[in-house]
Amino acid sequence: MTAIDPGPIGSLRIAPSILAADFGVLAAQVQAVDAQTDWLHVDVMDGHFVPNISLGPPVIKSLRPYSERFFDCHLMMSDPGRYLEAFAKSGADGVSVHVEVGGTKNLISDARALGMRVGVVVNPETPYEAAAPFLADIDYLMIMSVHPGFGGQSFIDDVLEKLRRARHDIDEGGLACDLEIDGGIDLHTAPEAAAAGANVLVAGSAIFATPDPLAAAAAIRDVALRARA
Ligand code: DX5
Ligand code: ZN
């Protein structure tokens, strides 16, 4: 399977998180926001790294024929390495692994060997320094702005500083790395995150828990673009 290209590095990307969608009609929900979707954010929770269980490769495989967007699979798992091949086979275009689980260097090379893009994720309490050494080797750095495991939480403002530092290092080093923010993104926090340097914005509740998810995604794009101008 040929992986889908993530698009121009550094450009603004909106990534609806399907965690907030209705899983009973998942394909329809994904298609409803397609026109305002750049990456589709797929939250995988193993009930161990985080206290919740969501979905895995079979759901990704089922969803794959319904979307041509870059599937950005966020692996909230204690042992992501064990499942990388299953994700690649199911149609994941990119996987992000939490730096907190360790073995990051090997996970990056294993994901690449399977033909996927790869990102590293840091939890709100994890210092930026834990991820910085990997910046030159990854396609995207993802900063968590909520504690992983649940949608619908409030954005933790303290992580803005991490975004600024990462953006500085990416630009200064001329690195081919996108900067993604995940958690509590809405019309108020999207501009803040974009101004601090994030270029991939994940939003779950602020898109799917609204009466018009497509319009909600468009509005987030709009305010973020204005903040970058
Ligand atoms: C949290 C997930 C997020 C979450 C975002 O563990 O990684 O992707 O779905 O949801 P909102 O936008 O509702 O915070
Ligand atoms: Zn996520």
3D structure, described in words:
The structure is a single chain. This protein has helices at residues 26-32, 57-63, 84-90, 104-113, 159-172, 189-195, 205-208, 213-228, and strands at 13-16, 39-45, 70-76, 94-98, 117-122, 140-144, 178-182, 200-203. The protein has 229 residues and is an alpha/beta fold. It has one domain: Alpha-Beta Barrel (TIM Barrel). An eight-stranded parallel sheet has the order 1-8-7-6-5-4-3-2. α2 runs parallel beside α3 (84-90) and α6 runs parallel beside α8. The N and C termini lie far apart (37 Å). The protein binds D-xylitol-5-phosphate and zinc ion. D-xylitol-5-phosphate is lined by residues 17, 19-20, 41, 43, 74, 146, 148-153, 182-185, 202-206. Residues 17, 41, 43, 74, 182, 202 line the site of zinc ion.
Main attributes of the structure:
single chain; TIM Barrel; alpha/beta; binds zinc ion; binds D-xylitol-5-phosphate; 8 strands; 229 residues; globular; 8-stranded parallel sheet
Helix fraction bin: 25-40%
Rounded Rg: 16 Å
Q: Proportion of β residues?
A: 15-25%
What structural class do you assign from the helix and strand content?
alpha/beta
How large is the count of helical segments?
8
Low-confidence stretches: none
User: What order do the helices and strands follow?
Assistant: EHEHEHEHEEHEHEHH
- Kindly state the number of beta strands: 8
CATH architecture: Alpha-Beta Barrel
Largest sheet: 8 strands, parallel
Mean pLDDT: 97
Would you tell me which CATH topology applies? TIM Barrel
Strand order of the largest sheet: 1-8-7-6-5-4-3-2
Number of domains: 1
Compounds present? Answer: D-xylitol-5-phosphate, zinc ion
Molecular shape: globular
Distance between the terminal alpha carbons, to the nearest Å? 37 Å
CATH class category name: Alpha Beta
Instruction: Name the CATH superfamily classification.
Output: Aldolase class I
